[in-house]
Design a protein that fits this description.
This protein is an alpha+beta fold. It folds into four domains: 119 residues, Topoisomerase II, domain 5 (Alpha-Beta Complex), CATH 3.90.199; 79 residues, Gyrase A, domain 2 (2-Layer Sandwich); 107 residues, Orthogonal Bundle (Topoisomerase, domain 3), CATH 1.10.268.10; 204 residues, Neuraminidase, CATH 2.120.10.90. It has 17 helices and 34 strands. The strands form eleven sheets. A four-stranded mixed sheet has the order 16-11-10-19. A hairpin with a 5-residue loop joins strand 31 and strand 32. The longest helix has 42 residues. The chain is elongated, with a radius of gyration of 38 Å. The relative contact order is 0.07.
Length: 726
């Protein structure tokens, strides 16, 4: 604006009176104030009308309008699919005046089983993949899923409020009844002005169990609810590493969850290979392939020979062939570190509560949902009660009319027209209400039969029972909440599925012990390095002459080397031929069926290419055995206190210092007073008292076994010990 003084005027006959002249509708304003107010209005519009979901139904306006438009259009699960272009046109023309591509993208996402844990749209056609976009909306078709109908259930019974659309030609719901906690089940993502939301999907059965528990125990804490909701449950599966991130997310609404692909090292025809069968949420096999190729070309990762994407028909399978003698476990750990095989999901549970954005913990999210369901059931019950009372009033009129049918017929025949007949029935002689009189005039003659009267009496009895039930729901909050629990149970029974994402141990996470029972297990390991745990009750005792049962499935030239009975919480010590010791809890070893092959040990321990496990020791022997006796191939023995190895490291610890060309053969737990018998490869044996071997430190090299027997002549040949026992 210019600095000129605005023109002034008076009455036309005298001097100016100093009053500024208003030029049409132009008003002088402060530019700073206008910018602040306009930006605030824009920000709130984006926050409320576009980017953030409502805590009650977990939907943004565009998703809610899409589902409502499909419901209005009759796209139910029992009807044929219809072109997505039709749905997009209805949404844009009636409710959501925005770009067609934005609406179509929102529609497609609700039909992608890799985006939503429980899709709300049943797709037909190419709805895309994690790496490819969907086909144009003129090619694809859609309809509602069965679960989506639960989002819209009872919406025609005055359960939610409706408002006029943008031009006043139609009405749309402000929120959906949402008969399951969709905000947590399917999650939500959005970026608003100055804030964002990123809510992961969860398991439907777990969330409903937590909701029911909170209804029954209103004072339940977040930790109580976490006994039911173990963590997010992503549609693509994968592994959730550790509990620290998800505990923070549930308690505060913010946290970071570490996701790791499900990958195993297998024996291939030309060496080892890494097979990936599940990938983290919102990644794709193609992205992972591209990143691995970059690392291999840059020589940041060595040992990969080739990759093959064998994924098909929704089943993920990425095969990474390794070069011969390449350390598979080391390569896999590098892939976790440098590629999308391991990602982090930042949780930010922000949703609209009464139109205002709020950061929610697990309890707050479920509490607001329960409040919404209480309102939905209350309004539905009031609607049904009014409907039942109106119908009961009419049926009561019918039953009275049957008792006075001759007088009523005479009154109607004497009336000049329909209006006069209705007025005559409302007279004192009959006393019918206007509604009853209207229905009696319109009553069919078939109602006058004896069967018609019986049907009316049965209907009246049912209506009275319904009215009593609805009045009980409205008068007792406990009964009302019981209805919510019952209907949530029905949804759970019909739609709940098993968890896809598993909770795994992260280094330094000690709380995982609380999730695992300390049950008895049997550890089985083979010569080729396959290991598994089997429930102890999988092996039954047999009488004399029993034929036995298969204990494991073996590959050619493989055989069982170790069978150890232990408990899930017990540590196992793994001693390798290179003289190193690794420590691992038994529950870290995957539990398999009795006849299953097992997992390659390199998936659990960071072994070197030429390293393999020679002995497994159960640490529960600490109480009964004081020492461990080491025997090497060249006849060197060493005795060390058992508890010297009561610690562990991922890369292993040196258990015995080996000389060049030597390797560890066997480790034996001893009491300190045992006799030791060593058998050489040439059939010679030495027996000596364990007391002749003095204890040494954990990293010492040991002494020659021949030195333990003073009478051994000098001409004993070079010792090669394949066997040792105490």
């Amino acid at each position: 604006m210019s600095d000129e003084v605005p023109p002034t005027g008076g009455d036309g006959d005298g001097p100016d009176d100093g009053v500024p002249v208003t030029l049409g509708s132009i008003e002088p304003i402060e530019i700073q104030q206008e910018m602040e107010q306009s930006f605030l209005d824009y920000a709130m519009s984006v926050i409320v009308s576009r980017a953030l979901p409502d805590v009650r139904d977990g939907l943004k306006p565009v998703h809610r309008r899409i589902l409502w438009a499909m419901h209005e259009g009759g796209l139910r699960p029992d009807r044929n699919h219809r072109k997505c272009a039709t749905v997009v046109g209805d949404v844009i023309g009636k409710y959501h005046p925005h770009g067609d591509q934005a609406v179509y993208d929102a529609l497609v996402r609700m039909g992608q089983d890799f985006s939503l844990r429980h899709p709300l749209v049943d797709p037909h056609g190419n709805f895309g993949s994690p790496s490819d976009p969907p086909a144009a909306y003129r090619y694809t078709e859609c309809r509602l899923t069965n679960l989506a109908t639960r989002m819209l259930a009872d919406i025609d019974e005055d359960t939610v409020d409706f408002v006029a659309n943008f031009d006043g030609s139609n009405e749309e719901p402000t929120v959906l009844p949402a008969r399951f906690p969709n905000l947590l089940v399917n999650g939500s993502q959005g970026i608003a002005v100055g804030m964002a939301t990123n809510i992961p999907p969860h398991n439907l059965g777990e969330v409903i169990d937590a909701t029911v528990h909170l209804i029954e125990h209103p004072d339940a804490t977040v930790d109580d609810l976490m006994q039911f909701v173990k963590g997010p449950d992503f549609p693509t599966g994968a592994q959730i590493m550790g509990r620290a991130g998800l505990v923070s997310a549930f308690r505060t609404g913010r946290g970071s969850i570490k996701l790791r692909a499900r990958a195993e090292i297998e024996e291939g025809p030309r060496g080892e290979r890494i097979v990936v069968t599940e990938i983290p949420y919102q990644t794709s096999v193609e992205q992972i392939e591209e990143k691995i190729a970059e690392l291999v070309n840059a020589r940041e990762i060595e040992g990969i020979r080739e990759m093959r994407n064998e994924s098909a028909r929704g089943v993920t399978r990425l095969v990474i062939e390794l070069k011969r003698d390449a350390p598979g476990n080391v390569i896999l750990n590098n892939l976790f570190k440098h590629t999308p095989l391991q990602t982090s999901f930042p949780v930010n549970m922000v949703a609209l509560v009464d139109g205002v954005p709020r950061t929610l913990d697990l309890r707050a999210a479920l509490t607001h949902y329960i409040d919404h369901q209480v309102e939905v059931i209350r309004r539905r019950s009031e609607f049904r009660l009014a409907k039942a009372r109106r119908r009961a009033h009419i049926v009561e009129g019918f039953l009275r009319a049957l008792d006075l049918i001759d007088e009523i017929i005479a009154a109607i025949r004497a009336s000049a027209d329909r209006a006069a007949a209705i007025e005559a029935l409302q007279a004192d002689a009959f006393g019918f209400s206007e509604i009853q009189a209207t229905e009696i005039v319109d009553m069919r003659l078939s109602t006058l039969t004896r069967l018609g009267r019986e049907r009316l009496e049965e209907e009246m009895a049912q209506l009275r029972a319904t009215i009593a039930e609805l009045e009980a729901i409205l008068s007792d909050d406990g009964v009302l909440r019981g209805v919510i629990i019952t209907e949530l149970g029905e949804v759970r029974e019909e739609f709940a599925t098993d968890r896809r994402s598993t909770l795994e141990i992260d280094e330094g996470d000690l709380e995982i012990e609380d999730l695992i029972d300390d049950e008895e297990v049997v550890v089985v390991m083979t010569s080729r390095g396959y290991i598994k745990t089997v429930a102890a009750d999988a092996f039954r005792s047999q009488g004399r002459g029993g034929r036995g049962v298969a204990g494991t499935r073996l590959k050619d030239e493989d055989y069982v080397t170790d069978i150890i009975g232990t408990s899930a919480h017990a540590f196992l010590l793994f001693f390798s031929n290179l003289g190193k010791v690794y420590r691992l809890k038994a529950h870290r070893i995957p539990m398999r069926e009795r006849t299953a092959q097992g997992l390659a040990i390199v998936n659990l321990l960071r072994l070197q290419p030429e390293e393999h496990i020679q002995t497994i020791i159960d640490t529960r022997d600490y109480e009964t055995h004081r020492y461990l006796l080491f025997v090497t191939r060249n006849g060197v023995v060493k005795k060390t206190m058992f508890n010297a190895y009561d610690n562990g490291r991922q890369d292993g610890l040196i258990a015995i210092n080996l000389r060049d060309g030597d390797e560890l053969v066997r480790v034996i737990p001893t009491s300190g007073h045992d006799d030791i018998l060593l058998i050489s490869s040439s059939g010679q044996g030495i027996r000596f008292s364990e007391e002749d071997v003095r204890p040494m430190g954990a990293t010492r090299a040991g002494c020659a076994a021949c030195g333990c027997v003073p009478r051994t002549p000098w001409w004993v040949p070079t010792w090669h010990c394949p066997t040792a026992t105490s």
